[in-house]
Every structure is written in structure tokens, then in C-alpha cells.
Amino acid sequence: MNSKIKSFAIAAIVLLVFVLSSCNSNKKIVAYQCPMLCQTDPAYASAGKCPVCEMNLEGIEKIDSANTKILINQN
User: CA-to-CA distance for 31 and 9, rounded, in angstroms?
Assistant: First the structure.
């Protein structure tokens, strides 16, 4: 009986790990912006460095402002 409980517990753990690892949080990046928001309106089409503070641009999932223009990176 004790062996059945251990087998069930192991199977439950394996199943839990499988379910948690299969949860996919694919984020659709639409543009890139500076994490310091040196420039609030422009966003960039690809990853690179901020032209103001030179930090790495981070991907964003949505554009928050109607004034935001997506620029082509120069670096």
C-alpha cells in the first residue's frame, strides 16, 4: 500500500512539472523602448540601445500612446 502512495505521489509531481512547464507565456513584442523612458513618445522597430542614455531597449507588448512613433534604430 505504501508503495502505491509513493508511485502516485511521484506520478502527480511529474504531471505537475509537465503542466507548469507547458504553460507558455509567449509575449508578442510590438516595439522597443528605453526602460528609463528617456524619450516617452518614440519606440523602435528592433532591439538596440537608447540614443539618450545608451541603456538596452526593452520589448513592449503594446503602444500606450497615440503619439508614439516607431522609428528605425540607427545603432
Answer: 45
